């Protein structure tokens, strides 16, 4: 059942070198399985088009660096013996693994984006460039032995052929090993109207029930869940091989499923009301921007996140509405947001230009950014927060 249609859009991270650059758009819509509640894109864009050169570097956000450092420490203490092997799939710039450098264990990142993997290597994180699959799993197991822990953060939702990844996990993970994934929680997406997290990189929108159905097919089970606030509300899911004499799963597993049922993840009416509320949010946001423009106000965008591309294109904003975006990621600066062709500049541009408003496209970093931009705010600058509701702060 297709329930949300965001139109034809370009890949969210396909930032343009110049406005004349040719770009391709693809259908961007969500459909759902009423049985396990798995929500997926209706159209798949080939991974090679999306991930070979990548513009997202997790370490740009200090909040995310702190998040992953605490995460890594927790995992290492609980699950990794002396000299144990920790492998991270989709390790990006090494933002998690770099905090384990110097610990009495071994680390290895795997990431398909050559440019990002090179940054990880410079950060001291050994990184294989490629899409994790059975071939890489066999090669790593042969060379380094089984992994005590395999981690996959904000990547499981990006994979089309999950069977290959799961078979690779089965090959590489030690019999007593733990597979840990962190991924946005579909219940949070629905509850907070996070429609802009729907983009071609995100093929699946998981909950515990849908993940359990997947893991069960490969002899794995979820034994613990920790809810996280990052990326609009995520779940950190702890997975083990199903064995006799295992302690029972934590109560948090059943609690997470109850939350999904409460949020109506499995109910077609709820999904349709989500789509309706998204359409209403667009009307409100477009109306506010038009009102402010009518009063002669200057409006910029803050952050050039993937989700920002979706929101700007879904609302049909142009440079007449949002003059430019600012983003602290060096490789994004000087490029243009795909589809809407809004230029991306360094944050210093905002401090010089002093717009009246900034649409906070990176709303999931609200605290960090409002703190960082306190001087601009004290000088009169105001943020327009689009999600979970349109508000000015
Ligand atoms: O799944 C994914 C999530 C985890 O990260 C990836 N597919 C892509 C990416 O999505 P995103 O681009 O929406 O993530 P963020 O973390 O919301 O992007 C924030 C953007 O804002 C980055 O481009 C960095 C920028 N930023 C900034 O300019 N100043 C961020 C902070 C915190 C800042 O202070």
Provide the descriptors you would attach to this structure in a database record.
alpha/beta, 18 strands, 393 residues, 13 helices, seven-stranded mixed β-sheet, binds ligand DWN
Topology:
Elements: E1 2-9, E2 26-32, E3 39-41, H1 47-51, H2 62-79, E4 85-89, E5 106-111, H3 114-122, E6 127-129, H4 134-144, E7 147-153, H5 162-172, E8 173-184, H6 186-191, E9 204-205, H7 208-216, E10 220-228, E11 234-241, H8 251-263, H9 268-294, E12 299-302, H10 306-315, E13 325-326, E14 336-337, E15 342-345, H11 347-353, E16 357-360, H12 366-372, H13 374-378, E17 382-385, E18 391-392
Parallel strand pairs: 4-5, 4-7, 5-6, 7-8, 12-13, 12-16, 13-15, 16-17
Antiparallel strand pairs: 1-2, 2-3, 3-9, 8-11, 10-11, 14-15, 17-18
Helix pairs in contact: 4-5
The site of ligand DWN has 21 residues, from helix 10 and helix 12.
């Amino acid at each position: 059942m297709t329930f949300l249609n965001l139109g034809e859009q370009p890949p969210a991270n396909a930032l343009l070198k110049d406005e004349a650059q040719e770009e391709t758009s693809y259908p961007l819509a969500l459909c759902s399985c009423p049985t396990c509640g798995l929500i997926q894109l209706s159209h798949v864009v080939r991974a090679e088009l999306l991930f070979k050169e990548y513009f997202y570097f997790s370490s740009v956000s200090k909040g995310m660096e702190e998040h992953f450092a605490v995460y890594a420490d927790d995992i290492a203490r609980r699950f990794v013996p002396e000299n144990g092997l920790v492998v991270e799939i989709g390790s990006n710039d090494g933002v998690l693994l770099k905090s384990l450098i110097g610990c009495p264990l071994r680390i290895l990142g795997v990431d398909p984006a050559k440019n990002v993997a090179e940054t990880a290597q410079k950060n001291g994180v050994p990184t294989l460039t490629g899409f994790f699959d059975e071939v890489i799993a066999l090669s790593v197991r042969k060379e380094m032995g089984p992994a005590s822990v395999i981690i996959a953060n904000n990547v499981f939702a990006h994979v089309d052929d999950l069977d290959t990844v799961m078979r690779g996990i089965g090959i590489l993970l030690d019999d007593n090993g733990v597979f840990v994934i962190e991924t946005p929680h579909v219940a949070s997406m629905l509850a907070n109207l996070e429609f802009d997290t729907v983009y071609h990189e995100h093929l699946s929108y998981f909950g515990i029930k849908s993940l359990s159905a997947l893991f069960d097919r490969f002899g794995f089970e979820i034994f613990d869940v920790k809810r996280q606030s990052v990326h609009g509300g995520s779940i950190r899911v702890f997975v083990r091989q199903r064995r006799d004499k295992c302690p029972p799963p934590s109560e948090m597993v059943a609690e997470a499923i109850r939350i999904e049922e409460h949020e109506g993840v499995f109910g077609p009416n709820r999904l349709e009301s989500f789509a309706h509320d998204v359409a209403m949010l667009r009307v409100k946001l477009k109306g506010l921007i038009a009102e402010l423009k009518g009063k002669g106000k200057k409006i910029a965008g803050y952050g050039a996140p993937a989700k920002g591309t979706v929101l700007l294109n879904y609302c049909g904003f142009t440079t007449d509405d949002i003059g430019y975006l600012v983003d602290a990621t060096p490789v994004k600066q000087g490029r243009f947001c795909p589809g809407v062709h809004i230029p991306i500049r360094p944050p210093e541009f905002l401090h010089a230009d002093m717009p009246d408003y900034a649409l906070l496209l990176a709303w999931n970093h609200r605290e960090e950014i409002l703190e960082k931009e306190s001087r601009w705010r004290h000088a009169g600058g105001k943020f327009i927060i689009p999600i979970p509701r349109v508000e000015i702060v």
